[in-house]
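This protein record is not my work; I was only asked to verify it. The record follows directly below this note.
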Amino acid sequence: MFPILISFLLELIVGLNNTSGLNLTENFLFGTIVFFLTNIFSNNRILRKIAVAGVFLYYLSFVIESAVYLLFETRINASYIYVTLNTNAQETLEFSEVYFTYQIAWLFLYLISITPIISKKIFRRETLRLKFSFLSFIVIVITILFLKLSTLIIYNLPYTVIKSISQYKEQIAAIKNFKTNTPKLDLKHKTNNDLTVVVIGESLSRNHMSLYGYDRKTNLLLERQKDEIWVYDNVISPHVYTTGSINKILTFSSHEKEDVATLISYLKSAENQVLWLSNQRPVGFHDNLVSLLASEADETLFLNYNEYQSKTNFDEILLPIYKEKIYKPGKKVVFVHLTGSHYDYKLRSPEKLKKFNEYLNDEKKSVVNAYDNSVIYNDFIISEIINITREANLKSTVVYFSDHGEEVYDTKDFIGHFENKPTRNMFEVPFLIWMSKDFEKPDDFQFDSDRSFMLDDFPHSLLHLMGIEGDKINKERSIFSNYFIEKDRGTYDNL
């Protein structure tokens, strides 16, 4: 039972908390299953290899769980798996550069060093042998049933991974099915406009924007246009990671219920041409949910792909293409998906726009500098999109928000965004709107900067702003309507 002892020692080293006892119990039971499997498989060469793989998986689970807890002081849940499934190689590399520590290195060195011991020692002759394999099988079945019925299985990493992947595949399949079998939608246009632009930022907390009162001047360009833009002060993301947020922003799913009806399908049914321009990579280690939702557009362009893949693209690469596409004939909705302030922050802005370069010998202050420089660059990008749209002389509007926020040493000693250890900065996002002077607003349009709003109701809001009425569209959920009713915002309201 040496692996079980190791798991206990790792738990002590990493740190005990109020779930440690449950996790240790699960580790003991998981180790019991692995132990009896090795006895069942000990007399067959092929089955021995399976048993060795099982023991290795047991150790690997400890290392991964310990690494996550060391970094984020939390246990792995479904949100981590969803993020991993939607992560590409470049994002993985940047994540490693930001979060890799010597403690993590020691953990994986331990795993590497223990691997040959597993294969050589686990089936030594003196290792306990059970005479009857049937008895081992009974013990395994009883242990698995106990794990399941006691709910301790939720602490088991392989179970969490398998269940999360299964749920994710079901979600992907449901969206694909809706795309293939989109019902006929009875929608009406009450206004007559030319262009609606939705700019989706990345990892930007409004608390690092001078437009929202931040003490560093990170929004000089947007502040010059303050008389032309409406700024909303109390908007949050539905999740603190991209996949969860975008799923709710671009479908009718909300915290109250799941609904795979997509925003883009409604826009197309209302006879709009939909374009998706992105500076994010379209692939992850599995079907990418964001790319799947984007693929429903009439035209989809991912610029951080193929020949661009070997270098870092700044978001300005989108501007000339955006300027070209908005002159296409007909009613248009253009989504512009930015890389924004995604870590590694220092890679998100060109040298010429890096204003904050002091405190180079202070690692944390240097990180804040890099993040704030990315906010300055984002200010330039949003301002340019508004300027290009204004110069087009179309009846148009630009809506900008970030998919989620970011913690950058503001309220705790941490950078990033994680659902299990959220802070308000991870939820609090910018939300602003610019409209041309001749843009036709809906009759019940009302601006209230302090409305308590969550972006899972964005489909209702955008369709209402565009004057589209029909099935599912609820004005009480539109931030732009005088019928708007505030709702509970889940985790955020309890922080």
Observations:
- The two ends are 42 Å apart (CA to CA).
- Confidence is low (pLDDT under 50) at residues 306-310.
- The chain has two domains: 1-167, 185-494.
